[in-house]
Structures are given as structure tokens and as C-alpha cells.
Amino acid sequence: MHFGTGQLVLGSRSLHAREAGDAGWRSFTLRPGLALRLSDHAGVGQLELHDDAALLAVWRYTLGLQVQAVRLVEQFERQIASLDHRHTPAPAEDTATCPICSSPMPEDSEECPVCARELQTPPSTWVLLRLGRFAKPYRWQLIIGFMLTLASTAATLVPPYLTIPLMDNVLIPFQNGQRIDPGYVMLLLSGLLGSALLAWSLGWARTWLLALVSERIAADLRTSAFEHLLTLSLDYFGAKRTGDLMARIGSETDRISVFLSLHALDFITDVLMLAMTATILFSVNPWLALVTLLPLPFIGWMIHVVRDRLRHGFEKIDRVWGDVTNVLADTIPGIRVVKAFAQEGREARRFRDANQQNLAVNDKLNKTWSLFSPTVSLLTDIGLLVVWAFGIWQVSRGEITVGVLTAFIAYIGRFYGRLDSMSRIVSVTQKAASGAKRIFDILDHVSNVPEPTQPVPIGALQGRVTMESVGFRYGNRAVIRGLDLEIRPGEMIGLVGHSGSGKSTLVNLICRFYDVSDGAIRVDGVDIRRFAVADYRRHIGLVLQEPFLFFGTIAENIAYGRPDASRAEIVAAARAAHAHEFILRLPLGYDSLVGERGQGLSGGERQRISIARALLIDPRVLILDEATSSVDTETEKEIQKALDNLVQGRTTIAIAHRLSTLRKADRLVVMERGRVVEVGPHDELMARQGAYWRLYEAQARRVDDDGDDRETVPAPTHAAHPAGQD
Predict the structure, then answer these.
(1) Among 44-53, 113-122, 509-518, 533-542, where is mean pLDDT lowest?
(2) Cβ–Cβ under 8 Å, residues 561 and 540
(3) Which residues are CB-neighbours of 91 under 8 A, at least 6 positions away?
């Protein structure tokens, strides 16, 4: 433990080290198989250099240099990986793997069948028409915006028409020796200026109005998608990634907003400009107008071909971008686990691989787009050249004047410019269609826990829970089979059994997070599927093994189920949950901020806040899911006191692997493979020497083997039933 100044330097080909007192440097040539491992213990960091056979060197440092050490290891791993890449032959095409999940990739396929679990269909631009129901509340603003667009477009077409008299009546006669009429010239120039100012003012008004409307449409779409998402059952969330859902509701709605406020407006303007310009061209000279339209069939055919490729391309881009956001959504909330297992490099590689896949898909799409856009420009330039040639020929024959040809060229510049703009809008339209499809996938999804058409009003619940031949399946796998159980009002039931026996699933069914596949669950004799979901769950209190706290104050978290609760009610709930004392020790008491997911509080403190939250809503049915399994003995005693206050007078269903937490249960329900195999008090079940006895004995042996002196098995005491109870 003597420290001195040393140096560790990573070069392009070697790792060099010189410790305090050394006269020279030690060098280690970088090669495949070399590994630099980082660890720390008791405030001292350690770097170990290994190869496949032995430990080559060890360097220790104070943790003040931890940031530099982590950077060194990351760079070392990158350089070794590059050496591995150079020395390893490229895999054959038939053994390609997905950079995200490392699954085998089919030949000639850019898409991993494991990552793309859903059957994906390319979005059609017709899906954008479904935005009409969100635009309906703003129809009058849209009508006004359309009229402003029509007027501003017409105003922009005035200047080219004024060039005809300006050329034929002013400039050409002047070249032939005639005198210029200043008043006539000022009139024409005033017309040019006036039309420009009118087009500017109308364009500003329509852009501002339609931008406001598009933002509101996107906001309504975002709100509707999120509100509908909240109504979906848990099985939907189990099949989706958090990052993907965030991207859909966040970035996709922003993309649609930009499309509606900018590109859709430009598209309408382009269509009006083309229609009006074509009308003027045919009215001036039909033959020259026909020559002007020659490139249109070729451009239309190209748009059709490219649109199909873009449809598939943007749909793939959305999916691979979802992979990028999924890595973020996994890593950031789980950053403590990442750091605890020193997997920063691995997560960085996951993100880099996902980002690289996103880059590859974008590169392929950009390859198509980069060819399409210049080709359209080339066709319009050729069209302009043909118009010049045909126009000069007509001028030479005296069929049109120079002024008419000049106006034609001016109109054609606008015509081809809008045509080029319309071809470019294909890209943003397909992007918006892809985003709209992903949002409507959420809106079209029907919850597996539907609301009843005529819900039964919930009065004062007694809390009698009856399960009749209940069955439940996850897909094709039966989890609960033919389960019958009746829980009396105010009774405490303990659910015990091995992992996978169906305890948590049964609780989820009682909470109606899922609906039963067979049979029925009744509360006070009424099938819970006949209650409105939100009304029913307001009478259910839930305390989980890992309580979830939101970013906000302690008081806001306790009052989450009753936001209108007074401070006195919040404090009373905290006192009953044995949380008041530790809350007062916090810097701001009940107004102290809780970090995301309860960061800054211990597990026991989070659990007691969770119990206070359940107490505040005063539920008739209480669910305790492993409420004390992850805390120490002293904390468990505090939580147990809080639970004693919580269960009084309520129908309680408690899940526990640690049997001591069920010592006050009226009855124990033993489950195996989705069925109830035993029901009764502790003493009775022990006397039977059945499934519960085996669980009890196995846990007792485990305690003896571990040398644990805590009370782990329930005492043979049972709470008496309230008077008048069945």
C-alpha cells in the first residue's frame, strides 16, 4: 500500500508501463487474445493484463483515476477487436448473424427474423387520410388556409404574365426606335411589386395558420395514442419494447407534425401551381404547352417505382431506429446493473451495432434517392431545352412573339420547379405514412381486458372473492387450470408454492390485469368483468416486491392513488406505514424529491412508502406480492408492523416464499402447476404432511444449512374471524 507516480500508456501497437522507481519502460505488444480487465476493491482500482495462458501484469491505482482507467480499457478493447477483425476471415454469407441479437440471418436478407417478430407490411400513403378525423375539429381553419393558398398561388402567377406586355410593348419597340411610355412602364412595374407583396402577405398568413393547425393535430394524435396505450392490457406491453413505444408516440408524431405544417402545404401549393400554370400555358399557346408536358410521363413512372422502394425502406428504417431507442431504454434505467457488472463496453457495443444497422439501412435508401432526385432535375432541364428550341422555331415563323416565349420560359421555370419539388415530397410523404402507420397500430389495437358495455356500479364492497373453475393461458401454455377458491370478507389468505406454480398469475387475474380464459372471478357475487376496469381497481390495493416510485416528492408518491388527498391524510397514511419518522429525517421532509424509480431511498423505505400509498386509498381487497422478500430482518419487522395496520379489516391475499411473512394468515393456499392442492391453517397442513409440509421442511433445511438464525417459518397462530363472518 505504498503509492507513487507511474505511467500506463496505450500506443497504436503496444501497451507501455513504467512504475515508480523503474528506470525503463515495459512494453506489451497488442495481439488477439490479450485482455485488460478492470476491478476495484476497498478504494483501490486494479488493472490486470492477461493473455490466453497467464496473468502478465497488474497495476493498482487510486479510484480518483477511475475515469481515465475506464477510457483506457475501452480503447484497449477497441484496438484488440480491430486486430481480431483483421486476423479473422470474413464469415461466409450463409453464416451471417444479426448485429443486434447474434441470431443467424437468412441468405440475401437484411432483416433478422428474431428482431422483427411481427409481420410487417409496408405503409401505404392512404394511411395519411386517416388523420382526417383528427383534422375535423379544425376544418374551418383548414378551409381558410386552403383559400389563402389558392390566392397566394394565383398572386405568384401574375408577374410572368406581365412580362408579355413588358417585352412586346416596351422593350422590343424601344429597340426598334420607339419612345418608352413612363406611365405605362410604372403601371406594369407596380403590378409586379403589388403581386409580390400580395403573394408574400397571403403566404405568411396561410403558413402561420396551417402551422398552428398541424401542431394541434399532432398534439391530439399524440394524446390519443398515449391515452389509448394506457387502456391496453399488460400482455400488449409484454410484447413491446419501451424504446419502440416511446419512439412511436414521440418522434413519429413530430414527423407527422412537420409533414402537415410544411410538406403537405408545399404539396398543395405545388398541385395548385401546376394546375394554374398548365391552364395559362394552354391558353397562351397549346402546342408549346404540349411540348412543356413531355417529361411528365417519365417523371410519373419514376415516382411510382421509387415510391414502392421508399415504402419498404422507411418502414425498415423505423424498425431499426426502434432498435436504437430500445438499447437506450434498456441501458439508462438499468445503469446501476450495467455498472455493477462492468458491462459499459458491452452496452456501448450493442448501441454501436444497432446504430450501424440503422446506418446501413439508411445508406441503401439514400442510394435510391440520390439517383432519383438528380434524374428528375435532368429530365426537367431537357424539357426546358426542348421548349427553348420549339419556341425559337415558332418565333422564327412568326407564330408567337418574343414576349410570349419569355413569359412561357418564366412559367415553365415555375412549372418544372414545382414538379421537382413534388418529386422530392415523395420521400417525406412516405416517412409520414410510415410514422402514421406505427401510431395507428397502437390506436387499432384492442385491449384484451375490455370495458363492459353496461358496467355494474360498485357500491360498498364487502370483499368476498370467489374463483369458479378459473383457467388462464399465456398463448398455448396453460398456467392456471380449473382453480376453485373462495375468500371470505376480511380474511387473510397466504398463497404459497414453488416458483412457476401460478401465484402471481392468479393475483394478476384478481386485479384484472388479464382476463380469465375459462371460468369466472367474482367479487361480492358479481363477475369482475362486469365492473368498469378503473372503478374496480380503485378498490384494490397492491404492494409489490419491487415498489415503483415516480420522480417527484414523497407526498406526491404517497398520494398517487388519491391526488386530492390532504397533507394530514398523507401524514396519517405514512404514520400507519411506519414511514413518518424516516421521512422527517430527509432534508425537505414530505417535500423531498424522490429520484427516478425511487433512487436515493433504501429498499425498505421505498416499500413503506408503497404501503402508505396503498393505505391512503383504503382498499377493500389488498394484494401483497412478496412485500418483504428483499429486505433485511430489522427492516422486515418495520414493514411487518406497517402491514399489520394495512391488513386490518380488509380481504388480503399475500404471496410469499419466506413463510414467516404469512404467520398471521387465516388460511394458507398451496398451489402446484396452476392448481390449488391444499387449503387450511398452518397446523392442519403440517399435520397432513402434504405439499405444504414439504415446502416447510425444505425451507427449514435450507435455513439450517445457511446458518440463518432468523425466524423463517410461521408460528402456529391464526387471527380470529370477525364476528358474524362465514
Answers:
(1) 113-122
(2) no
(3) 97
Distances (CA, A) of 87 to 11, 15, 33, 81, 90: 19, 19, 11, 10, 9
Helices of type H across 37-119: 66-87
CA dist., res. 322 & res. 523, Å (int): 41
Place of cell 441501458: 331
**Which is higher by pLDDT, 681 or 699?**
681
Question: What per-residue confidence (pLDDT) applies to 646?
Answer: 67
Nearest 5°: the CA angle 591, 594, 598 is 150
Average of pLDDT values for 512-538?
86
500 or 372, higher pLDDT: 500
Query: What does the block give as the cell for 488?
Result: 371470505
Delimit the domains of the chain by residue range.
1-86, 550-618
Q: List the grid coordinates of 467.
A: 374463483
Edge-to-edge strand ranges of the sheet holding 7-10:
7-10, 14-18, 26-29
Q: Distance of CA 698 to CAs 228, 473, 496, 672, 695, Å?
A: 47, 30, 13, 15, 5
Please tell me the distance from the alpha carbon of residue 677 to that of residue 429, in angstroms, as a whole number.
Answer: 60
Architecture of the structural domain at 550-618: 3-Layer(aba) Sandwich (3.40)
Torsion of CA 552, 554, 558, 563, to 10 degrees: -50
- How far apart (Å, rounded) are the C-alpha atoms in residues 248 and 621? 36
367: left (phi over 0), alpha (psi -120 to 50) or beta: alpha
For residues 644 and 611, give the distance between their C-alpha atoms in angstroms, rounded to a whole number: 11
CA distance 10 to 79: 10
Identical fold for domains 1-86 and 550-618, yes or no, is no
pTM: 0.56
Return the higher-pLDDT residue of 390 and 702.
390
CA distance 594 to 596: 7
| 682 touches 695 (CB < 8 A) | no
pLDDT beyond 70 at 37: yes
The CATH homologous superfamily to which domain 1-86 belongs is FACT complex subunit Spt16p/Cdc68p (2.30.29.210)
Burial degree of 205 (CB within 10 A; 0-12, 13-18, 19+)? middle
Rounded Cα gap, residues 67 and 61, in angstroms: 12
**Under DSSP, is residue 284 helix (H, G, I), strand (E, B) or coil?**
helix
Give the whole-angstrom CA distance, residue 114 versus residue 94.
17
pLDDT reading at 313 higher than 70: no
What pLDDT sits at residue 335? 76
Give the pLDDT band of residue 9 (cuts 50, 70, 90). very high
Class of residue 10 by CB neighbours under 10 A (exposed 0-12, middle 13-18, buried 19+): middle
How far apart CA 352 and CA 338 sit, in angstroms, is 16
Q: What mean pLDDT is predicted for residues 250-276? A: 73
Q: Residue written as cell 394565383? A: 154
**324-367 pLDDT per residue, tens:** 777 777 777 677 677 777 778 888 888 888 888 888 877 777 77
